[in-house]
Design a protein that fits this description.
Layout (H helix, E strand, L loop, with lengths): L2 E5 L7 E5 L10 H7 L4 E5 L17 H14 L5 E6 L1 H11 L5 E7 L7 H17 L1 H12 L2 H6 L1 H13 L4 H13 L4 H5 L5 E6 L8 H9 L3 E6 L6 H4 L1 H16 L7
Parallel strand pairs: 2-3, 2-4, 4-5, 5-6, 6-7
Antiparallel strand pairs: 1-3
Helix pairs in contact: 1-12, 2-3, 4-5, 5-7
EC number: 3.5.1.-
Keywords: Hydrolase
Catalytic activity: carbamate + 2 H(+) = NH4(+) + CO2
Amino acid sequence: MHIEIHGRRDADAPTLVCSSGLGGAAHFWMPQLDALTSDYRVVLYDQLGTGKSPATLPADYSIDAMASELRTLLASHGIGDYHLIGHALGGLVGLALAMQQAPGLRSLTLMNAWSRLSPHTARCFSVRKQLLAGSGPAAYVEAQSLFLYPPDWIAANIEQLQIDDRKHVAGFPPTDNLLRRIAALQAFAPDAQALANIRQPTLLIANRDDMLVPWQCSRELAEQLPNARLECFDYGGHASSVSCPDTINTTLRRFLASVIHDTEYAA
């Protein structure tokens, strides 16, 4: 599996592990690097079967398997204590790590994640799968930004999005891998007791204008976790770490500082 380690390299550096959403790619977190690498060691990786981590995923692929793969990857690079930042599917991986009682997991930041798939999200994925089957990767990729970003942000960044779309089509993952990853996130349904046993400090970040995952899913998840708080923003869409990096980076730094230095988190 492809891994990148950025930022501080000294032994005392707190480590952040960033886990991406459905796309699975390390480069999703580029808008966060400058803000985080001065104080932290930042670990990025391409999830198995995506990007620079080619593999044929099994038919019964699961979020638990993704969490186990990440545990193995971190252990192989000698990474002990860490704080997990996960976006959507990556947030589910973080929950799975906590439920597996993964050693070294010190906190969770879950961006637009959920404990129960919303019927709205299920319908979005149904449309996306039909688009892929009927029109192919180019149409799937072009539609993707509609689910990720606010309309005005798309309009202001259309030229860069068109460049990115061409890259994504050229590097499109095997269709079976993508469908198995979608099936894995759709099947993720932890029971209430398993969530209640998660003790790590947890920050949930949601956006009220998220087109893909209703913000209420984060509120519901926050209510199920014993040591969680929710930050909900009016603007940013599903991928607010890209569309509103300054807001997200400030929020991440504030939460991580409160956990690492054992101080009260101030919204």
